[in-house]
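Structure request: Sensor histidine kinase, Streptomyces bangladeshensis.
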Amino acid sequence: MTRRTAPRAVLLATGELLAWWAALALLWLVLISTVDALERIVGASCAALGAVLARAGRRAVTWR
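Returned structure:
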């Protein structure tokens, strides 16, 4: 098993993505006064994209 596919690495990556997603989704909900279904979908999608980009950025900095 390589380092990238080790179960611990997968769990850590998933946990990091979930933490970023939760923080960004909460920020989205706080900045919007009324929330309907479409806004929840858009907010969750933007938060997921932001979480992936934040993880990629952190990995790029710590990879060196």
